[in-house]
Amino acid sequence: MQNNKKLISVKNLNFNYGKDAILSDISLDIYKGKNVAIIGRNGGGKSTLVKLMLGFLKKKSGEIDYYVDKNKIGYLPQIREFDTSFPINIFDLVISGLTKKSNLFKKFSAEDRKRTNDLLAEFEIEKLKDKLISEVSGGQLQRALIARALISSPEILFLDEPESFLDKKFEFELYEKIKQLSDSTIVVISHELDKLCCYVDSIFIVEEEIRIFEDKNEFFKSEFAHRHIHNHKI
Ligand SMILES: Nc1ncnc2c1ncn2[C@@H]1O[C@H](COP(=O)(O)OP(=O)(O)OP(=O)(O)O)[C@@H](O)[C@H]1O
Where does the ABC transporter domain lie (predicted)? Predict the structure, then answer.
């Protein structure tokens, strides 16, 4: 279903925290309908790259061009980056995914509330909607954060380790559910490539530099498959 419409284009991107070079000369394109898995060793710079594409971090040099409405970019952060002591309940957390910079204090409509309730039911957390995020389990919070990332029907959806805390059954169903609920292009950071590989088209290895396999089959044929997955005969 690739139609070659570019959504985001990164050119010669460099980033460092203090003296430490984290990303060097990264260039990549994200195309509509072409799902990407970003893999690589711990601390390789995967989350940093995504945060740069989201505009949360300021690049040191290089270009990031957007061919997508920035309000149509969804994001699931790593759960550990989330302050679970923040006083917000599950319903408000999910509906807050509809808040844009330009409409911070807009009243949510009945339709917005219905969409929230539908997503809560879809993710089997409707009974928890009045609970504070500090009162639910890690997996329940992760489900709510995924629903939040999806609620705006994003054109592109960045997921940072979505499998964290999920039970095996839900982890297995996750990408089917995302496909069923949206037609977002997915860019997913994961250490579970063997589980998600049938949902992605391309594989990017990010370890300070980037190695791009536009066609995932080229990755599986390469020496990198041995290094990055346990069972590469998928
Ligand atoms: N706020 C920060 N200040 C300083 N260094 C940071 C900060 N955030 C991340 N780093 C460092 O930047 C490097 C890249 O981190 P990043 O989180 O992007 O890696 P990652 O590939 O997503 O790792 P993982 O697979 O472990 O989640 C790491 O060495 C990390 O220690």
Answer: 8-233
Sort 9 into a burial class: Cβ within 10 Å, 0-12 / 13-18 / 19+.
middle
Domain residue limits at 181: 6-228
Nearest CA residue ID for atom 28, ligand 1: 43
Ligand 1 centroid to Cα of residue 2, in Å, is 31
22 lines ligand 1 (CB under 6 A): yes
143 lines ligand 1 (CB under 6 A): no
pTM over 0.95: no
Q: Supply the pLDDT for residue 230.
A: 61
Domain contains 118: yes
Q: Is residue 28 part of a domain?
A: yes
Residue 88 domain flag = yes
Using the mean position of ligand 1's atoms as its centre, give its distance from the Cα of residue 42 in Å: 8
What distance in angstroms lies between residue 46's CA and the mean position of ligand 1's atoms?
A: 8
Write the pLDDT tens digit of every residue in 159-216. Answer: 999 998 888 888 888 998 998 899 999 999 998 888 888 899 999 999 999 999 999 9
Domain count of the fold of the chain: 1
Q: 122: alpha, beta or left, given left = phi > 0 and alpha = psi -120 to 50?
A: alpha
pLDDT value at position 233?
46
3 lines ligand 1 (CB under 6 A): no
User: Do the domain assignments include residue 183?
Assistant: yes
Q: What is the CATH number of the domain that holds 27?
A: 3.40.50.300
Spell 60-77 as b/e; 16+ CB within 10 A means b: eebebeeebeeebbbbbb
